[in-house]
């Protein structure tokens, strides 16, 4: 039998009639039901033959495009010395998601969630002159993160397959060119995988860095990220990064003429809603004061009552490694009041005031004592903020920071992320080189990731098929599903054999359902498996007529078997040329 013709009875494809109750996401349900994956433990999955074939096709596309962008593939250890992470400052800062372990000699190691430290140490030991730069390296490898709550199947797991790439350049200008080359490669990769996607501005998160960063997002209702975009000018960012146009600031004279601050008894009114109702003022006229611990030092963030603090923006402004809400005891110690009654007046800790919280001549705020608030609070008159900036999350109805049009919100799945790291890792891990003038310089780094196994779920999540999946031709496990209604019928068997041989002759991979099952079972399984092209051989086999379906376009038609084979080969050939 040709390697292009695969019989279904020889494959492990354990389809399920119903999805397990714990599978929430559509992609998770479909991949389980179609026999692509099976769970071993929470957030840990086995890839069965069909799922692994899709992953291999995705990896092939990734390799081709990264090679074309000038990157070299290597393979780095998953088990990494903790010492490297301590030198970079991330061993303690990465948090509980970092899986730590000891060997028999009690030496500390981590299972790599990412490889910035390892690749930088490698470059530091092997590259010492400008003649070896720029250097571009990548790998496809299993990563490990101890997710608190693994969910949505492959979208948030504890073990996953990732492509991570790293660049080492001599200058920021050189990094700019590398960064653009990778972004172009990513667009080609996701397009070839049949994914709908957009590139948005993003925050660097635990990876860090000194320059811009972008995420590639696949729109999907199940997505845990929010894409904020402007239809008018094309602005796009994730919610962590997105900005809104600043509101109009109140006139200085209105502030100077505001009534004096006034304390008001507000028994048992902790929340913004309760304070708003009690004082008879809109939530936008209340200053919400949140106390945080920034690297174990208290700071206050002040936003309008109808806004929420954006902790990523706040952490970036402070320049801290960790940022957490203060516990009730710390709030009482710092403000003199329990949670719900803290205010900016009288605080002796740094106050970060959101720019949109200074729009009014006076506002209400916590009085710094239980069961009391104050009216007519004016920044700079009644309290001195350490900084004013954009520290809030954008909301539905906000205006675009570029053109002023209304911003739109949509859910998305992060499938890729690119970073300009600068010298964050190279400076602390001694990745330097000697330039043309003999001077010591520090390498300028970039980092570029793609969630390879996550792509499997993202494409499945966007699948247009109602009863199962419809894989894009570029990554489908097989191109054609050849289904005889009755495997025992000699006329059908003869036509199936002719079609399979013709497709194999033209290099088209074909899955033949040779099982002795009822037609309904075969068709339901075929819908689940989701091959893009389908040929059904039934009662008109003796006439040489079969049913042809291009599931990407929908609709079925009866044609001669030679025409079905020709159409399949033609479509696949066109797809190969595109790829």
From TrEMBL:
It comes from Paenibacillus cineris. The gene is proS_2. Its EC number is 6.1.1.15. Residues 43-472 form the Aminoacyl-transfer RNA synthetases class-II family profile domain. Catalyzes the attachment of proline to tRNA(Pro) in a two-step reaction: proline is first activated by ATP to form Pro-AMP and then transferred to the acceptor end of tRNA(Pro). As ProRS can inadvertently accommodate and process non-cognate amino acids such as alanine and cysteine, to avoid such errors it has two additional distinct editing activities against alanine. One activity is designated as 'pretransfer' editing and involves the tRNA(Pro)-independent hydrolysis of activated Ala-AMP. Belongs to the class-II aminoacyl-tRNA synthetase family. ProS type 1 subfamily. It is found in: Cytoplasm. It comes from the Bacteria. Signal peptide: none annotated. This is Proline--tRNA ligase. PANTHER family: MITOCHONDRIAL RIBOSOME PROTEIN L39/PROLYL-TRNA LIGASE FAMILY MEMBER, PROLINE--TRNA LIGASE.
């Amino acid at each position: 039998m040709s390697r292009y013709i695969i019989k279904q009875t020889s494959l492990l494809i354990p389809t399920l009639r119903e999805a397990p109750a714990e599978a929430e996401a559509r992609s998770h349900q479909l991949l389980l039901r179609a026999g692509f994956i099976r769970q071993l433990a929470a957030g840990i999955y086995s890839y069965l033959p069909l799922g692994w074939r899709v992953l291999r096709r995705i990896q092939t596309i990734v390799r081709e495009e990264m090679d074309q962008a000038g990157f070299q593939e290597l393979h780095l250890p998953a088990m990494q010395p903790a010492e490297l992470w301590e030198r970079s400052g991330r061993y303690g800062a990465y948090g509980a998601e970092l899986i730590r372990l000891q060997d028999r000699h009690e030496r500390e190691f981590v299972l790599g969630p990412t490889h910035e430290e390892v690749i930088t140490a490698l470059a530091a030991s092997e590259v010492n002159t400008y003649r070896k730069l720029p250097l571009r390296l990548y790998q496809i490898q299993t990563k490990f993160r101890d997710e608190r709550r693994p969910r949505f199947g492959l979208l948030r797991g504890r073990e996953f397959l990732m492509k991570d790439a790293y660049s080492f350049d001599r200058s920021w200008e050189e990094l700019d060119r590398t960064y653009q080359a990778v972004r172009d490669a990513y667009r080609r990769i996701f397009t070839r995988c049949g994914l709908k996607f957009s590139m948005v501005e993003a925050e660097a998160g635990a990876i860090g860095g000194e320059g811009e960063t972008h995420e590639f997002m696949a729109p999907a209702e199940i997505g845990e990220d929010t894409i904020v975009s402007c239809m008018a000018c094309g602005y796009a960012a994730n919610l962590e990064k997105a900005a809104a146009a600043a509101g109009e600031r109140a006139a200085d004279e209105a502030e100077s003429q505001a009534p004096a601050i006034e304390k008001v008894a507000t028994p048992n009114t902790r929340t913004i809603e309760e304070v708003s109702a009690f004082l008879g003022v809109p939530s936008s006229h209340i200053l919400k004061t949140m106390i945080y611990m920034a690297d174990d030092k208290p700071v206050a963030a002040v936003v309008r009552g109808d806004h929420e603090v954006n902790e990523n923006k706040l952490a970036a402004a402070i320049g801290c490694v960790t940022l957490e809400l203060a516990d009730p005891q710390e709030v009482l110690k710092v403000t003199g009041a329990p949670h719900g009654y803290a205010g900016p007046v009288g605080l002796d800790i740094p106050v970060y005031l959101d720019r949109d919280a200074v729009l009014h001549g006076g506002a209400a705020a916590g009085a710094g004592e239980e069961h009391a608030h104050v009216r007519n609070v004016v920044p700079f008159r009644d309290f001195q903020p350490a900084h004013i900036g954009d520290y809030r999350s954008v909301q539905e109805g906000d205006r675009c920071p570029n053109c002023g049009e209304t911003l739109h919100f949509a859910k998305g799945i992060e499938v890729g992320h690119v970073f300009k790291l600068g010298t964050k890792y190279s400076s602390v891990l001694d990745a330097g080189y000697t330039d043309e003038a003999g001077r010591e310089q520090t390498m300028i780094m970039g980092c570029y990731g793609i969630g390879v196994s996550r792509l499997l779920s993202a494409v499945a999540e966007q699948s247009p098929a109602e009863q199962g999946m419809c894989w894009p031709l570029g990554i489908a496990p097989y191109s054609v599903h050849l289904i005889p209604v009755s495997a025992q019928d000699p006329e059908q068997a003869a036509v199936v054999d002719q079609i399979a041989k013709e497709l194999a002759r033209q290099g088209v991979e074909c899955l033949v359902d040779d099982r002795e099952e009822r037609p309904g079972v075969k068709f339901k399984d075929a819908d689940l498996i989701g091959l893009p092209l389908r040929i059904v051989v039934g009662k008109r086999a003796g006439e040489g007529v079969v049913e042809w379906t291009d599931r990407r376009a929908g609709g079925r038609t009866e044609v001669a078997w030679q025409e079905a084979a020709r159409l399949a080969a033609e479509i696949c050939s066109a797809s190969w040329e595109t790829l």
